[in-house]
From TrEMBL:
Keyword tags: Signal
Protein name per its UniProtKB record: Lipoprotein
Signal peptide (residue range): 1-20
Top-level taxon: Bacteria
Amino acid sequence: MKKLSTLILPLALISTSALAVVDVEMKVSKLPKKVSKEQQEISAQLASSNCAYVVNPVMDIRQNKDAISWKVNATGVQQWFNAVHQDVITPLIPTASKDIVVEVTPKLNMLYTYNEQLNINGMAVSTVDYSINGKPAGQYHVRGFNSDTNWANGDNEYVDSAEHAAQHLITRILKKLPEICGKAG
């Protein structure tokens, strides 16, 4: 009987440690050149449109604000969106006063990652409410996606994929602004 307990105890310890969830903080890193260039093009479109824009920070309304995969929690997601709003979005939005004001309020519904063969895929899903001249005008849904090669199966790779999906989400929210302005005019 002693031999059986000697075998079972180490196996139980190994199996519970394999199920442990790791917390990794999301940190704003330098935007990839492709994303930065695309956002600069969007900024030029916004400047030449007939509308002024107010883009509110993304609000994290997920029920589980940390989990992004079965093994990794991403902490600081709301702080990440606040920093991106201040450092990336705000400088892109023209400040000129115009007769038509489009305001968007994005809400993060989902942010998750998953493995698919040798890749880690990230998905960010948002519902965006918008108003025109202060009157509610509609709502639309936006998805951001990212797929990266899973080199080391490291916890940071999951968070990086989630960050890139969130960056893609923000770019798609900004791309939609001229279309909303066109509906207002």
